[in-house]
């Protein structure tokens, strides 16, 4: 028996929804010793269902140790914020899991929730992947014949076979900055728009204001969510002014951290670190010195996408971000490999569109549209 434990939990879905599993580990809060581990394959489920299932399993395991205090650590911001009472739980599939988690938490003297980066949740992540790799547990339902409608399921959409109402992401890249004029690596450096960049933002806003469906039935604008950097917030604010909305930010939409290459041109970075730069161009797990790999960006943006779709399911959302996160969202929509990052060109202030369906299907509708800038 121990008085205080730490529960690290994680869940994943390969397809969202797709083959899913969770992992949870209970550790002694003082020594860090592993007390219990849990993992299970869930069949076909969404990423957020898997995350909540990991939390429930972790709380049950913590109860087995006789703990009175539980510190929950997860890399799902959505679960942490919802269980902390700061975000509403809108999705019907998550409500019973959240209720079960609350009931379990009520048996302890104290339960706290803390968000941690994915890298600090590697133990639970490994267990979740063990569960998904094993592929045992509840069976995956057989696919329905093309054109069929299963009881309780949405009808097929178009020739793709996608089901349900998609969440449509309008992806707007920020306008010009001094860094982009000189074609320099511009990641976390917080540079503002140039005068030309402000003109591009205004032209983008005018284009969006004339687009049908961006004003909701209640007269309010669609959600407008930007990276927390100045150049994206300025671009997003121009759209908000035109649409009558307000700008929110999400850290998952921030640009790649280019580390020591920040502010350098392609040639300068290649000269500074020739071998590393060559490897970086072909290996998405390779990071610039002191920076972030494209694999890390992909995981971060994927989680941001899942959180935003959960919060705004079935709606249109305007996301104002940077070249790499936008390419990553299009890559997720196309189910493409990392080479897309180097083969796809996106202009400043360009507009792209991708839709994600509840059944895991996706459709890229528009890429790099700059007609509003001409």
Query: β content, as a range?
Result: 15-25%
What is the CATH topology classification name of the largest domain? Rossmann fold
Considering the protein shown, what is the CATH homologous superfamily of the largest domain? Phosphoglycerate mutase-like
Shape summary: globular
> Within the largest sheet, what's the order of strands?
10-9-11-8-12-13
Count every helix, treating DSSP H or I runs of 4 or more residues as helices: 12
Report the average pLDDT across residues.
88
Helix/strand order: EEEHEHHEHEEEHHEHEHHHEHHEE
CATH architecture of the largest domain: 3-Layer(aba) Sandwich
Low-pLDDT windows of residues: 136-157
What is the radius of gyration? Answer: 22 Å
Number of strands: 13
Total discrete domains: 2
* Highest-level CATH class of the largest domain: Alpha Beta
């Amino acid at each position: 028996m121990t008085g205080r434990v730490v529960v690290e939990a994680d869940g994943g879905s390969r397809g969202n929804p797709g083959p899913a599993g969770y992992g949870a580990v209970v550790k002694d809060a003082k020594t860090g010793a592993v007390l219990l581990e849990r993992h299970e394959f869930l069949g076909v489920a969404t990423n957020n269902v898997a995350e909540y299932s990991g939390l429930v399993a972790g709380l049950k395991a913590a109860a087995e140790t006789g703990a009175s205090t539980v510190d929950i650590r997860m890399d799902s911001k959505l679960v942490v914020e919802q269980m902390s009472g700061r975000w509403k739980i809108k999705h019907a599939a998550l409500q019973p899991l959240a209720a079960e988690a609350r009931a379990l938490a009520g048996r302890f003297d104290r339960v706290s929730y803390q968000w941690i980066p994915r890298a600090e949740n590697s133990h639970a992540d490994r267990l979740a992947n063990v569960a998904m790799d094993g592929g045992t547990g509840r069976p995956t339902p057989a696919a329905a014949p093309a054109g069929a409608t299963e009881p309780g399921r949405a009808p097929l959409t178009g020739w793709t076979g996608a089901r349900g109402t998609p969440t449509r992401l309008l992806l707007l890249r920020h306008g010009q900055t001094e860094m982009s004029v000189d074609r320099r690596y511009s990641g976390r450096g917080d540079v503002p728009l140039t005068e030309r960049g402000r003109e591009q933002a205004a032209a983008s806003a005018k284009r969006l204001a004339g687009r049908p469906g961006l004003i909701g039935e209640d007269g309010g604008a669609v959600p407008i969510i930007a990276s927390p950097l100045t150049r994206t917030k300025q671009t997003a604010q121009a759209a908000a002014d035109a649409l009558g909305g307000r700008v929110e930010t999400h850290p998952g939409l921030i640009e790649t951290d280019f580390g020591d290459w920040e502010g350098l041109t392609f040639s300068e970075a290649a000269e500074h670190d020739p071998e590393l730069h060559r490897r970086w161009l072909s290996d998405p797990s390779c990071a610039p010195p002191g920076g972030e790999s494209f694999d890390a960006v992909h995981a971060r943006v994927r989680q941001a996408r899942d959180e935003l779709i959960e919060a705004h399911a079935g709606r249109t959302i305007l996301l104002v971000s940077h070249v790499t996160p936008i390419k990553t969202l299009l890559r997720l929509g196309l189910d493409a490999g990392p080479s897309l990052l180097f083969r796809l060109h996106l202009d400043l202030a360009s507009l792209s569109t991708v839709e994600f369906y509840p059944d895991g299907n996706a459709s890229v509708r528009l890429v790099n549209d700059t007609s509003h800038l001409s």
